[in-house]
Amino acid sequence: MTIRLIGFPFSGIVLRVIICLKELGIPYELDPPASYKSLRDEDYKANKHPFAKIPVLFDGDFKITESRAICRYLVSKYQGKYNDTILIPNDVHKAGLVDQFISYEFSYYDPPLSKLLYQEKVVKSLNRDQDPEVIKQAREELAKVLDVFEKLLEGKEYLNGEYSLADIFLCPNSYYVYDAGHSDLWDNRPNVKNWWNRLYNRDAIKKSFEETKSFWENNPKF
């Protein structure tokens, strides 16, 4: 059965799932909703996501929502089936450390990153004025997190040593914020910069962003 992913490929949270699918070599079909407005339809909420959000993944008759939960499901079911890429190690201690970094991402990294993303992408798209104070505070918060990452990445290629699901979770929205004039936050920290460059040179990640660009070009209404 072909996996069906509901979502827009330019969405950072949808990109998490797309990258995970590509890294694990899982065949899938992308099924973008008609519009953001359509997510609020009662049928969508009843049959896809009760909170009117994306992504949603269908694996046959099985449905699961929320990007982090979807990726964990994909790893649990498909890791090792199509290729030898390991995103969560079988070793219980190593797996626990991946979860630790995922928790760091969710608790400390994502909150300031999301504030910057909202100001740089959402506010601008709505033709509203950005809030300089929110941007300033978010940059300061994210800088503190990246200072910690700079130490944690010492002598390592990826957050957990080897590439893992934790790196994927950090990836898409970071790219958008980096590209929106905040690259110095990553580039001014040598270990973070090396990790960043290594991450975005992975084939699955490059292909995911290339497909996102292609979607934008072919669907200007979004």
UniProtKB/TrEMBL annotation:
Entry's Gene Ontology cellular component terms: cytoplasm
Reaction(s) catalysed (UniProt annotation): RX + glutathione = an S-substituted glutathione + a halide anion + H(+)
Domain GST C-terminal residues, every copy: 91-222
Transcription found in the keyword field: no
GO MF annotation: an example: glutathione binding
Top-rank EC class of the record's enzyme: transferase
Single GO biological process annotation from the record: glutathione metabolic process
InterPro entries to which the protein is assigned, alphabetical: Glutathione-S-Trfase_C-like, Glutathione-S-Trfase_C_sf, Glutathione_S-Trfase, Glutathione_S-Trfase_N, GST_C, Thioredoxin-like_sf
E.C. number(s) listed in UniProt: 2.5.1.18
Domain (GST N-terminal) ranges: 1-82
One Pfam family of this chain: GST_C
Alphabetized Gene3D superfamilies for the sequence: 1.20.1050.10, Glutaredoxin
Keywords from the named record: Transferase
PANTHER family, A to Z: GLUTATHIONE S-TRANSFERASE RHO
Protein's name in the database: glutathione transferase
